Amino acid sequence: MREELIAQLNAWHEADQYEEIVSRIKEVPTPLIDEELAVHLGRALNNLGRYREALKWFNKAADQGKKDPLWHFRVGYAHYYLDEYDQAIKAFKKANKLDPEDQDTLEFLEWSRSEKAALAAADEDSEDAEEAAEADSASDASPDRDSDAAKETKH
Questions:
Q1: Using an 8 Å Cβ cutoff, are 51 and 84 in contact?
Q2: How many C-beta atoms lie closer than 10 Å to residue 55's C-beta?
């Protein structure tokens, strides 16, 4: 029965029927969802764009996943799409260490680094703009001594 379930989950995955996978695994009482089913569920949730929920299930399989480059890739994938680039980079680096030939891992690692750098640059630009605005505001708020002097002589 277990082998049939795993075969069905894999068939649904190949057919892009991720909701079927989620529905079937969620029929299993949560305490009975082992690491293998948790990984299948996490993979399906990733493919449905439900990344935070996917990470919850991947974490349930963390012990099994420590030496699995695909597990690290999937964790990195979820973090990447959650815009959590530091965590994504960490996961993709581990996946790359375990499987240096995987091109998808290398591609996502590069994308994660690029997105992180872009965010850092945007933050820097934003801080520069805030500082400039504060400087303009401060100069507008300070009295212009020449105009104050002119006002005094007109009275």
A1: no
A2: 21
Residues 6+ apart with CB under 8 A from 44: 12, 13, 18, 19, 21, 22, 25
pTM of the model: 0.79
| 3-state class (DSSP) for residue 68 | coil
pLDDT of the residue at 145: 42
Report helix, strand or coil for 86.
helix
Q: What is the DSSP string of 30-70?
A: GGG--HHHHHHHHHHHHHTT-HHHHHHHHHHTHHHHTT-HH
Instruction: Check if the beta carbon of residue 72 is closer than 8 Å to that of residue 92.
Output: yes
Q: What is the DSSP letter of 39?
A: H
Nearest CA among 128, 79, 135, 131 for reference residue 108: 79
pLDDT digits (tens, 9 = 90+) for 1-28: 889 999 999 999 999 999 999 999 999 9
Sign of the CA dihedral with 142 first, then 144, 148, and 149 last: positive
